[in-house]
Amino acid sequence: MNNNDSLVNQKRRAILGGTAAAIAGIAIAPGVFLTETAQARPVDEPVSSKTRWGLLINTNNCNDCNDCVTACQNENGWGTGSNDEQNSAPNQKAQWIRSVKVTDKQTGYAKTLPMMCQHCEKPPCVDVCPTGASFKREDGIVLVDKHICIGCRYCMMACPYKARSFVHEKLTDQRSYAPRGMGTVESCTLCVHRVDNGEDPACVEACSSSMIFGNLNDPDSEISKELARHGGTQIRADLRLNPGVRYQGLNF
Amino acid sequence: MKKVYFSEINGNSLGYLALVAGLGLLVLIGLGAFLYMEHSGHWVTGMNNEIVWGLPHVFAVFLIVAASGALNVASISSVFSKSAYKPLARLSGLLALALLAGGLAVLVLDLGHPDRLIVAMTYYNFKSIFAWNIYLYIGFFAVVIVYLWMMMERKMNGFTKAAGTAAFIWRLILTTGTGSIFGFIIARQFYDSAIYAPMFIIMSFSFGLAIFILVLMAIYSGTGRPLGDAILFRLKNLLGVFIAAVLLMVTIFFLTGLYATEHHDVVAFILNGNNIYTKLFWVVQIIMGSLAPLALLYNPVTGTSRAWIAIAAILVILGGLAQIYVIIIGGQAFPLVMFPGMEVSSSFTDGVIASYGPSLPEFLLGFSGIAIALIIVTLALKVLQFAPNSLADADVDPHYAAAK
Amino acid sequence: MHVMHLLKTISVVVLLLTAIEVNADVPKPKPIHGEGECVEPEDIMKRNHMEFILHQRDETMQEGIRTSKYSFKQCISCHAVKGDDGEYVHVDDSRHFCVTCHEYAAVTIDCFQCHADTPRSTDKHELRVNE
User: Fold this and answer.
1) Nearest-CA neighbor of B59 among B374, B366, B358, B329?
2) Is C57 on the interface with A (CB under 8 A)?
């Protein structure tokens, strides 16, 4: 090769190399960043309060829909999602999430919204539980530790949202990842088994157009940005419980 | 005052054996009801996800409240040094223990997991008033047993006042704890009020004394030992004061509710609703359980008749049960207010008044709590020296002049 | 004298009954082993399985730690026993792995009041494992 050739070739190689590197970088970089956010905490790492899980529900599309309720039943094995609770009366059967219709009699304004455990920052159910079975995990999910639940139902009295249910009869059709049993109290777990797996709760997956799930403590998460931009309301905000579940579109 | 002699009752008569057998049968039936509920699950009861505490809790709370009040007579003698009540102090302590045992038995047996009682005794969340109550109730047993011991062993009599004062303070804290079970519930319109603590204390005075009077009259007429008017009329006048005090508390509670617009719905629900709670409140709690006994106890004719005094005491007890029913069940029946002023509906009885139909197993379990309390008293009287040989006027209060 | 006679009679009766009981043939349990090797050696598991289960239980419940070695769901899935009809047996059947020994030892377990006692086809998805 003569010198001109090699210089031009060198430049070409440099440009080609640089472009290739740039393209490779552009191609890989999103993968690197996206994998970091989508990747859940490793299974052997304890949860920390660096994360506070939240749910933002836009009620403008709820109307007569029940997709979130059905998804929860099928995921967690209650209601129509299980063969259990055949003996219980309708008001004895468990209900982890329900669709509530609210109407302003004066104006006629009406909205439907899904109601489940609000995963409060200051949960009254946790305060009143005598054994500490009702507890709040470091990452904000409020759960019932059914190993130490004695079934006193005081938490059910104390919940302002009627989020909790008592299991009135023997169960045999539980999901492996969602244990539930007679004589203990249960409620929405924010699909903790899915969340720990890096996934969204079943209700959010069923209605991803109107529900956002994410880390309220991360200002760059989708839920935080949406809340900062358009706000959201808490149900019974006057109780100052600071729930993790927020709603949009409730103009009561 | 004259020395008071105590002795065990004979307990040989057919009547006594029949009483023990009858109470024992009621206890066994209650146990059977418990086994049925525990084995099948709570679906066999009338309790549901709206009314989570039902008839067993009504009986249990009534007995626990009455237990602390039954100790009143002993406290008056030891703490406030009214010597006329001193002969009754042992019976008062015994009745307090027995009523608490009966109430706690019913409460524990209704748990979803009564087999986890040991968990309740070893895992504690001290922000919960329930956790505190476990200590308060167990401690009450210990404190009253020590108090009885100080009273019943001659050489410990010097410590009676100290033990009695400790017991008095303990039971005030205990009843505060029981009332606060409801007072600390922020979620419900009928609860969330500081008045529950003092109201339960006053209720305990009234219910406990009514039961004490009835038990006293039953023991003395059953054993043939004399029970003079001096002591009985003192007790019945005191009962009247307590009934009036409860009426005052209830009035304050509802007046405050009437003043606050946000509470108008729940006050109307209880005082003027088309439901069982309104009927129980006015007919049983107020008329039968408060106004009628007041009239009977203070009227010069009925107030000096043993039969009418007993009837008045029974009415107070019925009124007390109704009051607890209205508080516990009525308070749960009224819907949670998540959207003030709005009309709410759902598949989980949001926005509607919850319904509750007590079931037979619940009633049998609750009623057996009364049987447990009474059988403890009946057996204890035969085993130890709780009852004075004589409560005749001359022996108790020689200066007493019967009212003409 | 009468008391001594009575005591002697009672003790003879008790001894006889005990002897009968000791000689009665209660077969040792033969639990159906799971596939492959257990996560701990058999003798350690026999004595200490409750410690592993309870420790993992608290870690998972309170801290969200879901390692697979002592995962209860993993135990159930590995030790699942199939009946004659090809379906997994439940805790009301003596062939269920946990029941075989617990019935013999007369130790009640209440795990399966809440936990699924067999692998479930109704499970919607698998849990991630890190080993």
Assistant:
1) B366
2) yes
In chain A, residues with a C-beta closer than 8 Å to the C-beta of C123 are 175-177
Residues of A within 8 A of C115 (CB-CB) are: 174, 176, 179, 181
Quick: pLDDT tens for B101-147: 999 999 999 999 999 999 988 999 999 999 999 999 999 999 999 99
- Min Cα–Cα distance to chain A from C126, Å: 9
> Which residue is it, tokens 């997709």?
A67
Tell whether C55 is within 8 A of chain A (Cβ): no
Judgement on whether residues A13 and A76 belong to the same structural domain of the protein: no
Which residue in A has a C-alpha nearest to residue C56's C-alpha? A44
Instruction: Indicate whether A16 and A76 sit together in one domain.
Output: no
Tell whether B5 is within 8 A of chain A (Cβ).
Answer: no
Contact yes or no for A47 and C64 at CB 8 A: yes
DSSP symbol at B50: S
Q: Which residues of A touch C122 (CB under 8 A)?
A: 77, 81-82, 173, 175
Check: CB of residue A191 under 8 Å from CB of residue A76: yes
Taking an 8 Å cut-off on Cβ atoms, the answer to whether A172 and C124 are in contact is no
In a shared domain, residues A62 and A124: yes
In a domain, A18, yes or no: yes
Q: What pLDDT band is residue C131 in, cutting at 50, 70 and 90?
A: very low
> Nearest C-alpha of chain A: how many angstroms from B134?
9
Neighbours of chain A (3+ CB pairs under 8 A): B, C
Question: Whole-prediction pTM value?
Answer: 0.89
Mutating which of C58, C61, C96, C110 best tests the A interface, going by the most A Cβ atoms within 10 A? C61
Mutate to test the interface with C, among A43, A135, A144, A173 (most CBs of C within 10 A): A43
Residues A62 and A158 in one domain: yes
Instruction: Give domain status of residue A35, yes or no.
Output: no
Structure tokens at A43: 């299974």
Q: A120 and A9, same structural domain?
A: no
Q: Which domain holds residue A14?
A: 2-30
Q: Are the beta carbons of A227 and A246 closer than 8 angstroms?
A: yes
ipTM of the complex: 0.91
Model confidence at A116, in pLDDT bands (50, 70, 90)?
very high
Query: Looking at the domain assignment, is residue A38 inside a domain?
Result: no
Whether residues C90 and A172 touch (CB distance < 8 A) is answered with: yes
H-helix or E-strand containing C5?
Answer: helix C2-23
Decide if A104 is inside a domain. yes
C61 and A170: CB-CB below 8 Å? no
Partner-chain contact A145 C123, CB within 8 Å = no
| Count of domains observed in chain A | 2
Burial of A22 (0-12, 13-18, 19+ CB in 10 A): exposed
Q: Indicate whether A53 and A18 sit together in one domain.
A: no
CATH of the domain at A199: 3.30.70.20
**Do A81 and A19 share a structural domain?**
no
pLDDT per residue over B244-298, tens digit each? 999 999 999 999 999 999 999 999 999 999 999 999 999 999 999 999 999 999 9
Q: What is the pLDDT of residues A38-52, one digit of tens each?
A: 456 888 888 898 999
Quick one: tokens of B339?
């959207």
Between A202 and A34, the higher pLDDT residue: A202
pLDDT at B81: 86
Pair A100, B344: CB distance under 8 Å:
yes
* Residue ranges of E strands in chain A: 53-58, 98-103, 110-115, 134-136, 142-144, 165-166, 185-186, 211-215, 245-248
Beta strand A142-144 with A134-136: parallel, antiparallel or unpaired? antiparallel
Chain B residues lying within 8 Å of A65, measured CB to CB: none
Cβ separation A95–B181 shorter than 8 A: no
Claim to verify: residue A52 and residue A163 sit in the same structural domain: yes
CA distances from A210 to A114, A250, B90, B355 (A): 11, 14, 68, 34
Q: How many residues does chain A have?
A: 252
